[in-house]
Task: structure prediction
Amino acid sequence: MPDRRIFRPRVDIDWSAPSPNWDQRALPVSMVVLHYTDMPDVHEAIEKMCCPDSKVSAHYCITRQGQIVQMVEEEKRAWHAGRSYWRGKSDINSASIGIELDNPGHSWGYEDFTEEQMQALLLLLNDIVKRHDIPRANVVGHSDVAPQRKDDPGEKFDWARLARHRLALARPEKLGLGDPFDNDGSFYLALERFGYDISDGHAAVKAFQRRFRPERIDGEIDGEVRAILFQLLVDRDRGLTR
Result:
């Protein structure tokens, strides 16, 4: 049964822009999905997410100036993830909080995320993760849950900064365990076990690289990528990466 408690953020919301694009959750909140707006103007992006005809929304949007805008209450199911999958769940909208970050994205001249934006995200994300008891492994990007369709928040997003605050998984620094995968098939199975939809293997590998090895995103399974995945799985099995 979905969690019917009323959740209220304990951080300052700069302004509200209520969106009609929501329905009732079918699952309790166990994830956060990070997006970029992929539009040149944040006000246009918010207007779109508040338009009934768009059929899209998110719980929050963070502007480049660090303002937090709430559009859908957390207990409601916002329409931000679309067709998606993570760790056996296919109704990601029901299981997640969606946060949009103001950025033109790859369509309009992808830019670095601002310091003010990242600071606001850290405050909001820390609050959400604590209130909903969300594991670090379930703070993901849109590209992680929809690798065939999405690239956001993209390779410029500072996942390492979130990891330093224990708000996301860190990229493993030591890869001493090596590469245990005999072939690509075994790697894909391990990638699925970690959480990804592998129906398009090349896209899934690119999403994994974008998240954990952003300096080279080519969709190719190489020794470094295999070693990173193996270390992440070992750490998770040891209970070190909740």
